[in-house]
Specification:
CATH architecture of the largest domain: 3-Layer(aba) Sandwich
Number of strands: 10
Radius of gyration: 21 Å
Distance between the termini: 45 Å
Oligomer: single chain
Largest sheet: 7 strands, mixed
Strand order of the largest sheet: 1-7-6-5-4-2-3
Bound molecules: pyridoxal-5'-phosphate
Shape: globular
Strand content: 5-15%
CATH topology of the largest domain: Aspartate Aminotransferase, domain 2
CATH superfamily of the largest domain: Type I PLP-dependent aspartate aminotransferase-like (Major domain)
Number of helices: 14
Number of domains: 2
CATH class of the largest domain: Alpha Beta
Length: about 350
């Protein structure tokens, strides 16, 4: 390495233009950033025994308008896996949609952290589980040679950008209740679901039978961190030991919890999510004006899923756009973030118009 190479290596890499590949391409929202800075003011007790963590948990109890047990972990895979492990024994099974993150994107972590609980997959339109499917799978077998169904996991907003309404969740709850199953919600994009529905957070959680929610902070403008919110507080028994054993107990916990205070205290979490949803709605509307495109799912949150011709996908990439194409053949996913601007959407739409 010569001297000028060293200068280059020391410089910060230039940022990308704002992209649509994932909502985790974005940086920190100002509220999370400011709270991190405030939490950096001096010394503070460790392992969650601090005022920031207390305040973040209290704010979550305010947001959900109920007493609940709250924990902070580093990421969504850990949140889901540990929450599901707290619902199940190793000989149990968890029912989820076949596109669920816990099945497709967690490298078997839910099975690993529960010591072998099996994940059973259900089909369903729009990325959602139909209550009748729960009954069908549970009814298939009740003998002791089959892993005993113990939990249902729903994702809200779903992996394909749709949203479960309070009534849809209550219909699932009526099945889980009658079948003795726990209800887990993967809320990596919970804020986008609440913003989309315009409901109170309680209406799609404990008032719809959710026992435990994994509430995503990362995709909503934090650097890192998800909260695990137990409405069924019995399930939270010894959860701190699960977190510690899994390597998920942050020693400088205040840097996981302070950003929650930042985004919750004056509603930034919901404003940012509503903004991301509005940007996706803008892109969805622009796409509908264009030929040779086919929407794949109803746009209800911050993602747009569309089928494009292969040549157009290549041409869009050649113009520098980054996006995923993992839903079937030709299915493209465009995710909007808290910091996506209308002009970003318009630039993408204009390039789409040019390549279609
Ligand atoms: C992003 C995401 C998660 C969390 O993923 P991590 O990379 O483990 O933080 C969980 N569920 C869904 C549906 C997601 O999109």
């Amino acid at each position: 390495m010569n001297a000028s190479d060293r200068t280059l290596a020391a410089a910060a890499p230039p940022p990308l233009r704002r992209q649509f590949a994932s909502d985790n391409y974005s940086g920190l929202c100002p509220e999370a950033w400011t709270a991190m800075q405030e939490a950096n003011a001096g010394h503070c007790p460790s392992y969650g025994d601090d005022a920031w963590t207390q305040r973040a948990a209290d704010l979550l109890r305010e947001v959900f308008e109920t007493d609940c047990d709250v924990f902070f972990v580093f990421n969504g895979t850990a949140a889901n896996s540990l929450a599901l492990a707290s619902c199940c024994q190793s000989y149990h099974s968890i029912l989820c949609h076949e596109l669920a993150h816990v099945e497709t994107d967690e490298c078997g972590a839910p099975e690993f952290f529960s010591n072998g609980t099996k994940v059973l997959l259900l089909p369903g339109a729009e990325g959602k589980i139909a209550p009748s499917e729960i009954e069908r799978v549970v009814g298939k077998r009740s003998d002791l040679h089959f892993p005993k169904p113990r939990a249902v996991s729903v994702t809200n907003a779903t992996e394909v950008g749709t949203v479960y309404s309070p009534d849809e969740l209550k219909a699932i709850w009526s099945k889980t209740k009658s079948l003795g199953l726990r209800l887990h919600m993967d809320g990596a994009r919970f804020a986008n679901a609440v913003a989309s529905l315009g409901c109170a957070p309680k209406e799609i959680t404990w008032q719809a039978g959710v026992d435990v929610l994994c509430f995503g902070g990362t995709k909503n403008g934090m650097a890192v961190g998800e909260s695990v919110v137990f409405f069924n507080r019995e399930l939270a028994h010894e959860f701190e030991w699960r977190c510690k054993q899994a390597g998920q107990l942050a020693s400088k916990m205040r840097f996981l919890s302070a950003p929650w205070v930042g985004i919750l205290k004056d509603g930034a979490w919901l404003r940012h999510a509503a903004h991301a949803n509005a940007m996706a709605a803008r892109l969805d509307a622009a796409l509908r004006e264009l030929p040779n495109t086919r929407p794949l799912f109803t746009r209800e949150a911050n993602g747009v899923f569309v089928e494009l011709p292969a040549a157009a996908i290549g041409a869009l990439r050649a113009r520098g756009w980054l996006f995923y194409t993992f839903i079937g053949a030709g299915g493209c996913r465009f995710m909007c973030s808290w910091d996506t601007r209308p002009e970003d959407v318009d630039a993408l739409a204009s390039d789409l118009r040019a390549v279609l």
